[in-house]
Amino acid sequence: MKKYNPVKIQEYWQKIWEKEKIYQATDFSKKPKMYILVEFPYPSGDGLHVGHVRSYAALDALARKKRMEGYNVLYPMGWDAFGLPTENYAIKMGVHPEKITQKNINTFRKQLKSLGLSFDWSREINTTDPKYYKWTQWIFLKFFNSYYDKKEKRAKPITELKIPENLKGKERKKFIDNHRLAYQAKIPINWCPHCKIGLANEEVIQGKCERCGTRVERREIKQWMLRITEYADRLIEDLDKVNYLEKIKKQQINWIGKSYGTEINFLVKLKNKNLGNIKVFTTRIDTIFGVTAIVVAPEHSLVKKYLAFVENQEEINEYIEKAKRKSEMERTELLKEKTGVELKGIKAINPLNNKEIPVWVGDYVIATYGGGAVMVVPAHDQRDFEFAQKYNLEIIEVIKPQKNQEVKRNVNGKLLEAFEKDGILINSGKFNGLNSEEARKKITELLEKQKIGKRAINYKLRDWVFSRQHYWGEPIPLIHCPKCGVVPVPEKDLPVKLPYVKKYKPTGTGESPLANCYKWINTKCPICGGPAKRETDTMPNWAGSSWYFIRYIDPKNDKNFADMKKMKYWLPVDLYNGGMEHTTLHLLYSRFWYKFLYDLGLVPGPEPYARRHSHGIVLAEDGRKMSKSFGNVINPDEIVKKYGADTIRMYEMFMGPFEETVAWSTNGLIGIWRFLNRVWNLFNQIEITENKNKNLEIITHQTIKKVSSDLENFK
Hints:
By secondary structure, the protein is of the alpha/beta class. 33% of the residues lie in helices and 20% in strands. The chain is globular.
């Protein structure tokens, strides 16, 4: 074949590769193992786009290199197929999600195979397959039947929990349930008033429902939760054990948000009546004498309990209603201007100088963080400074700069901005003259002595909201019995299969569409045999992806989620590549699940991934994100047909630094096509000889070294 014909070449060789199964990994090979993993895709109706190819092609090149170096390489592929987009599309088109999912998977598989990627297809998995989600449900039951031993810093079976002897009946059960790693709690969630459904944060786009575009509200609903917060310290500390990009480590640490500080009680009064204490967490107790207000979350118990007694009840109610229409992400946006309304008539007492200060309600304060209340120190926090100027609050300086530090003031000596650094205390009574670090220690000691405060550690990370009021997800394997309470489905009865129903639209009550499946819901209690009902919430789309890398190791095992010997051979994953957008959710969740399984002796090590790398996004040629609405999505199928798989894969390796965002360039693609033509023509022109050329040999070895190094380091 004189003329370069990539389509003919790739069709010929791909058939041979598939027939001879040359990319299938071998369990327990004598070769050194190399487990290379890419994030498995969500099979959307749009099919594969060129952004997917960037990650797959890069890891494919490395996998091929490692095989040539004598490694036993596992490079698998599967489908993260549960999720809201499929359910939305199914509702819109009137086609069942199961049919849509299978169709989309077939399209994706065909596209990936056309690219000639060296995946081990014998290990293909699908999170919507009952044979797969049987084990997702099994792992959930392990969470439900476990608690966290804070002394030993690990999970244990709930049967080992020490229960006070005086607790009997309902009190005993309540004690046990309060310690489970999977538990139910009433929490504020994003709520779409049009769809009448709860939404995860990722389903809220600019404060609006992703499904219908209606502005989202906040509403309290019972949800199943996983106690990921128990693992917060280990998730931070064990980052020292892995080879992740520093930006990935930093992003995880910031998301967990561990901070050391002081918890302090402010007495609250309504005229002359004591209302009890508000607990406030602060990392800057050295600024306590500069507090000129307390701000509480709209959901704070103080607001609910005493709203009827404040002087501006109507104004407060109006503000709370506006706050309900904002998502948590909107409310906590750092660039957002702080807003609030004073609870007129209610005052807080600063415990260190007995000074009365106003209490406000502000939507930038979240009920689930730091007790749902913050202290306002305008002179030493810039956002507090802006808040104080907006609402005419007092500004008291209590920290003065040390040498070589400056404070910006106007000609009259007034602050132009907050001084946020550590310094020397002033206007702080007996603590005057101390530096900030020393003052934090001594003030906290005084508060502890007087039993009005204590040292505390706080986390931004909150327990994982694990239930969704959707149809297309894994059923949560629990049963509600009027007599026995919440009871786990026996393991022998797993999987609890998702019923095939014609109607899977939202119920309008906030419940999952499964609430309308009466034949499926009504069941018998596994303990007493009496009438009971199944849990109707389903798991989030993150559930199946939290352990999929384990199932690749043993995908057809129907006795265990994976064989321990195989796990010991293949784990941890040697290299895991994925998008930076998954650093704080999927990556954190899967590390959490793995650590939990490790605590129970079900996996061989504390960390699932030895190395984590990330790739940049591929933008459209116009520099915007690829979107059907923009009409700029680039489908790889057309490129493969016209230029061949090698052209697109090679172009994506040359288009720019792997970690950075890059824009697609058709001219760049054509340049690679021309290069491959020149290589083909050159090969057909040269005469193969055994004569050695020393200079050529040197250049060859230099090239091998450079290419090898660049592949290993994603350059």
